[in-house]
Write a structure and sequence with these properties.
heterodimer; A: 453 residues; alpha/beta; OB fold (Dihydrolipoamide Acetyltransferase, E2P); Rossmann fold; 4 domains; 5-stranded parallel β-sheet; 18% strand; B: 87 residues; alpha+beta; Helix Hairpins; two-stranded antiparallel sheet; 3 helices; 2 strands; 61% helix; 15% strand; elongated
Chain lengths: 453, 87
């Protein structure tokens, strides 16, 4: 029976929806293919299962080819699947969405995983087909913008094995060591031209998505046209709508950079010169505000001059005033002479006339002479010479009468040639009179000295 | 200052174009702001010149060099070969 079945259905091709998909630990894949009316168990041995270009899941519509056989242990027949492909675009899209959700759940598409592209990559690794427009577009645009060192990793971009090659190339670039024989790129471009969803399917496969997502080198994904989106695009750090756009993302425009550099250079030079210029101007402004040395001294100099002038003027004034004063006060000989003259004149006026004196003196002398003669005529002793005597008592008193003489104890008789002491007769004997009684009595009162004697 | 300059130049040669360009832009901004003392601005200017030369050298050295990866037995990149775009 087994032989009959196997012989009769040596190769079959079935279309159906997968259900009960189960991958055994051995690597074999067990599933069931079903349509509206029927169900057929299927098995895919490990070798073939590993080559599957998609992850079989329940609900995916597939076209499976293989041969029918029986499984005697369970009394079942089943298909041994050699190849299995997703059937139809709708099915593919459904699978794509499922895969996307699953990988997204793993975080492979997270924005936080996205890395910034290097501003100016030294080496760009391109994973694409070595033939065709894609690589030419990329190289052309790179050359336009910024001639770069490009390493092309040739891969199949479609069909059986393409996904594996792309994934291997991405990993291979990542595995290049720094300073090895092959320069390590610092940017990868995974590129493919436009095509149907089936054509682009390799870039939706998990191997490619994982390789891109885990690439140590930032990746630009440029798969298909703008409207085509593959999971590879989700996993990449940047998505480019076209290969040309990928080249534009990869490098800046060299001419613009040159212009930027030139601009920086000009600005830098302006900036470095400006403070110098500014400093020079500010210095200049201050220098101009700085007073001139002579101006600085001017007030003092002026003051000095002024004082000097005043000093000189003061001195000369003072001298002049002095001179003037002196001139005013000078003893003029004429004045002196005049004064002397005046004095002499007044002296002359005031002089005593000798005649006055002599005249008066003569008159006086004459008067004196007359008086002298008178005096001489009146001298009481003069009569003595003629025989008269002056009698005085013991007291010297003139005795003018005999009575008085009789009473006197003693009498003194003055003669012209001397005095004789005697006692009156009737009285006690007279003591001998002193020899000399002729003491001159007081001068005669009429007599007076000569005024001019 | 010499040590600083030397340090500056060595550290410039290790800079990527982008970092050097950014550094240059910083230098220019600082110089333009006029906040840098004059003496320092000279040093800064010299560093700016070094950065600019470094960037210019990177630009001048840029030339298209297209190679193709030659893979080894296990698919590793073993070497490169000229890439013929017409190939």
């Amino acid at each position: 029976m087994k032989r009959t079945v196997e012989d009769r259905f040596g190769f079959v091709r079935l279309r159906g929806e997968l259900s009960g998909v189960k991958r055994a630990a051995s690597g074999h894949l067990y599933c069931a293919l079903k349509d509206e009316n029927a169900v057929l168990d299927g098995v895919m041995w490990r070798g073939n299962a590993q080559r599957l270009s998609f992850l079989p899941e329940d609900g995916i519509e597939v076209v499976a080819s293989g041969k029918l056989t029986t499984y005697p242990g369970r009394s079942k027949y089943q298909i041994v699947i050699d190849q299995m492909e997703i059937a139809g675009e709708g099915a593919l899209l459904a699978l794509l969405e499922k895969t996307r959700q699953r990988l997204a759940a793993e975080g492979l598409f997270d924005e936080s995983r996205k890395r910034a592209l290097p501003f100016l990559p030294r080496v760009i690794g391109v994973v694409t087909s070595p033939t065709g427009a894609v690589i030419r577009d990329i190289l052309h645009r790179l050359a336009d913008r910024f001639p770069s060192h490009v390493l092309v990793w040739p891969v199949l971009v479609q069909g059986q094995g393409a996904a594996e090659q792309v994934a291997a190339a991405v990993r291979g670039f990542g595995a290049i060591q720094e300073h090895g024989p092959v320069p390590r790129p610092d940017l990868l471009i995974v590129a493919r031209g436009g095509g149907s969803i089936e054509d682009l399917w390799s870039f939706n496969e998990e191997a490619v998505v994982r390789a891109v997502a885990t690439s140590p080198i930032p990746v630009i994904s440029a798969v298909g046209h703008e409207t085509d989106t593959t999971l590879c695009d989700f996993a990449a750090d940047r998505r480019a709508p076209t290969p040309t756009a990928a080249a534009e993302m990869a490098v800046p425009v060299r001419a613009e950079l040159g212009a930027t550099l030139a601009d920086f250079r000009a600005r830098q030079q302006r900036a470095i010169l400006r403070p110098v210029q500014l400093g020079r101007e500010r210095l200049e402004a201050r220098v101009q505000r700085l007073p001139a040395p002579q101006a600085l001294l001017q007030p003092q100099a002026q003051r000095l001059d002024e004082l000097h002038q005043r000093l000189r003027r003061g001195l000369s004034d003072r001298a002049a005033r002095g001179r003037e004063l002196l001139a005013k006060q000078r003893l003029s000989p004429a004045a002196l002479e005049r004064a002397a003259r005046d004095a002499r004149a007044s002296l002359a006026r005031a002089r005593l006339a000798p005649a006055l004196l002599t005249g008066r003196a003569k008159a006086e002398r004459d008067r004196f002479d007359a008086l002298g003669r008178l005096l001489a005529s009146l001298d009481p002793t003069a009569p003595l010479a003629r025989g008269f005597a002056l009698v005085r008592d013991e007291h010297g008193t003139l005795v003018r009468s005999s009575a008085a003489a009789a009473k006197a104890a003693r009498l003194a008789l003055q003669f012209a040639d001397g005095t004789l002491e005697t006692a009156p007769a009737g009285s006690a004997p007279v003591k001998p009179a002193p020899a000399k009684v002729a003491r001159k009595p007081s001068p005669p009162p009429a007599r007076q000295d000569d005024l001019f004697g | 200052m010499l040590a600083r300059m030397a340090e500056g130049s060595t550290d410039i040669s290790g800079l990527s174009f982008e970092d050097a360009l950014r550094a240059l832009e910083d230098v220019v901004r600082k110089l333009e702001s006029g906040e840098v003392p004059l003496d320092q601005s000279i040093d800064l200017y010299e560093r700016g010149e070094a950065l600019r030369k470094h960037c210019q050298a990177r630009l001048d050295a840029a030339q298209a060099r297209i190679e193709k990866i030659v893979t080894g037995a296990v698919g590793e990149a073993r070497g490169t070969a000229p890439f013929d775009t017409d190939g």
